[in-house]
């Protein structure tokens, strides 16, 4: 995870274009909390969603899933073959070696449904939704199958980039799961939370794989929470441990161009806790994601960080958009759970907030 945090900071500092191109007013009607907010988001991301068809995904991946972030070699960015810290075990070129048949890794790539399409019987637009349908090595896609995601200590299969399949060790679930490498856990969590929001009105349809049909099915049989408690906790853990990256921002913008809707949990990571907070433990609430900044944007030369009493902050660093460190505080002293950052000139800043367990980076705009 250290590599991704450093990569995230270094890439974010290059240019203002790193920030999502959210259309003006896109989330104006997202005013509620809990599952009310989730339903409001469902309406927002359903409006304008155009099914472009299954075949069009390969062409869309040229923009949405292009390796412009690691080797920067314009190959297919496959989460199951990417090695963020060194040479990839293999690569695929866009529009080449699509599956067909496969017998091992590096034979061909195809389209994986992060939420398995077998659960919804390949119905559209779920089957063709780029926000959860990604390019994947065909063999690894088959190895993962319809297993839910989880955490694995004793894998029965390990991919060439270190992803694992085996018995789950997270929380209460005891079935077989698939664990991607740390670099992409947050990406996958936000895809699954998008799915739970975009399709909340149909996840309990009789045509879907019912909640009790299989130990591999993480649905809980409701339209509001959607996933079982253990799965919500897992996804939230991955969401907070692996914050939104530039790769996800770029993918979200490309998906919006392709099919007309966005993943709200990339644009607004704080929505996850706002919606599913009732499922999460008190310890989970200690996430740095709860730190808020106001006013933001600011028309004055200072902002205030509001930090819940359950959170202990070890370090706060403020960077300019070009990556220059302009302020640093270790073990800051709070006044009424608040901390003021002042002497900010007009511009865009990144605030990196850290404790012993997490790092999170937030944007500040001073107008």
UniProtKB/TrEMBL annotation:
Domain Secretion system C-terminal sorting positions: 293-366
Keywords of this entry: Endonuclease, Hydrolase, Nuclease, Signal
Position of the signal peptide: 1-20
GO molecular function term, any single one: endonuclease activity
Keyword check for Signal: yes
Similarity comment: family membership: Belongs to the EndA/NucM nuclease family.
Record's protein name: Endonuclease
Species: Asprobacillus argus
């Amino acid at each position: 995870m250290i590599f991704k945090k450093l990569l995230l900071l270094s890439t974010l500092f290059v240019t203002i274009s790193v920030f999502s191109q959210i259309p003006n007013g896109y989330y104006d009607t997202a005013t509620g909390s809990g599952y009310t907010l989730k339903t409001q988001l469902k309406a927002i991301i359903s409006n304008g969603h155009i099914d472009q068809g299954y075949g069009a995904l390969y062409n869309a991946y040229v923009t949405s899933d292009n390796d412009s972030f690691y080797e920067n070699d314009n190959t297919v960015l496959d989460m199951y073959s990417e090695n963020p810290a060194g040479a990839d075990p293999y690569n695929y070129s866009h529009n080449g070696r699509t599956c067909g048949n496969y017998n091992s890794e590096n034979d061909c790539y195809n389209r994986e449904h992060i939420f398995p399409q077998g659960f919804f019987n390949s119905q559209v637009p779920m089957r063709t939704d780029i926000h959860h349908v990604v390019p994947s090595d065909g063999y690894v896609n088959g190895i993962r199958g319809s297993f839910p995601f989880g955490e694995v200590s004793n894998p029965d299969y390990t991919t060439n980039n270190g992803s694992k399949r085996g018995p789950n060790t997270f929380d209460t679930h005891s079935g077989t799961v698939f664990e991607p490498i740390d670099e992409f856990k947050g990406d996958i969590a936000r895809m699954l939370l998008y799915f739970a929001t975009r399709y909340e009105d149909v996840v309990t349809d009789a045509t879907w794989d019912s909640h009790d049909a299989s130990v591999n099915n993480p649905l809980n049989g409701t339209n509001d929470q959607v996933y079982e408690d253990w799965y919500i906790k897992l996804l939230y853990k991955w969401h907070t441990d692996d914050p939104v990256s530039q790769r996800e921002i770029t993918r979200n913008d490309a998906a919006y161009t392709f099919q007309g809707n966005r993943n709200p949990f990339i644009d607004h990571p704080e929505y996850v806790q706002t919606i599913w907070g009732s499922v999460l433990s008190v310890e989970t609430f200690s996430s740095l994601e709860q730190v808020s900044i106001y006013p933001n944007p600011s028309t004055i030369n200072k902002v205030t960080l509001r930090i819940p009493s359950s959170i202990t902050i070890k370090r706060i660093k403020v960077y300019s958009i070009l990556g220059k460190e302009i302020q640093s505080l270790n073990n800051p002293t709070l006044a009424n759970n608040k901390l003021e950052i002042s002497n900010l000139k007009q511009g865009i800043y990144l605030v990196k907030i850290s404790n012993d367990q997490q790092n999170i980076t937030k944007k500040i705009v001073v107008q």
